[in-house]
Amino acid sequence: QICLSLVKLLFYLAHSPLGSIVLLDFQPRQFVMVDGNLKVTDMDDASTEELPCKEDNDCTLDFPTKSFPLKCSMAGKCEGINEKKNLFNAYRYFFTYLLPHSAPPTLRPLLSDILNATGDLRYGINETLRAFEKVLHLYKSGLYLQKRPLLLKDYISLKGFRTVEGEDYKCWPSYSHLGCLLSIHSAEEAAAICNSQPQCQSFIVTQQRTWTGRPLASFQSSWTDLIPDTNAVVYIKRSASSG
């Protein structure tokens, strides 16, 4: 969510009515999340000026660990330097820390491609935004799910119930520090997750939704102490409930 929101912001800056805008003081502390969207808190160090040049050799974009040769345009400006500077800063301050983690295994290669392409500046902001939107579509639609045996048949479902909330086993990347709370595309995916965790005996699909509209499921090591909840469905392993 943070990376996608940042890319949308940089897309706007690259195509703004004022021209391509570069953030000269590009640091994580210059951004804040507002209603799920990343905002710039300080525009004092923004500029629309692009580096003037006479030849390509005048257009080297330097960073502490990398340098990139750019083209000198017919207008005597270093072509795309503002856009590329913003994008590489997004890569080194945000993408490298956030993209490699938490994604479903089948989506990680696509995120690695984005990471590598922006790290080498092979992608511009347009290509980067399209790549992010493709990943988001696959994630929201469930198209990333690999075909696997149907596992939900191995569970008993009880609508209108949930277990008493309390501390349980933990997993990564959980939305709760007290237990294992994950977003899912469907109850079938939740069953596959539960089967992959030795401690899991049941899971509850709630009405809570993430920013992508996916429901949250709580995975638990027991299924006792059920209480009524019209907005929840608890799924219990048949092997666990046989007694």
Automatic annotation (TrEMBL):
<protein>
    <submittedName>
        <fullName>PKDCC kinase</fullName>
    </submittedName>
</protein>
<dbReference type="InterPro" id="IPR022049">
    <property type="entry name" value="FAM69_kinase_dom"/>
</dbReference>
<dbReference type="Pfam" id="PF12260">
    <property type="entry name" value="PIP49_C"/>
</dbReference>
<keyword id="KW-0808">Transferase</keyword>
<dbReference type="InterPro" id="IPR042983">
    <property type="entry name" value="PKDCC"/>
</dbReference>
<keyword id="KW-0732">Signal</keyword>
<dbReference type="GO" id="GO:0004715">
    <property type="term" value="F:non-membrane spanning protein tyrosine kinase activity"/>
</dbReference>
<dbReference type="GO" id="GO:0005576">
    <property type="term" value="C:extracellular region"/>
</dbReference>
<dbReference type="GO" id="GO:0001501">
    <property type="term" value="P:skeletal system development"/>
</dbReference>
<feature type="domain" description="FAM69 protein-kinase">
    <location>
        <begin position="2"/>
        <end position="116"/>
    </location>
</feature>
<keyword id="KW-0418">Kinase</keyword>
<feature type="signal peptide">
    <location>
        <begin position="1"/>
        <end position="19"/>
    </location>
</feature>
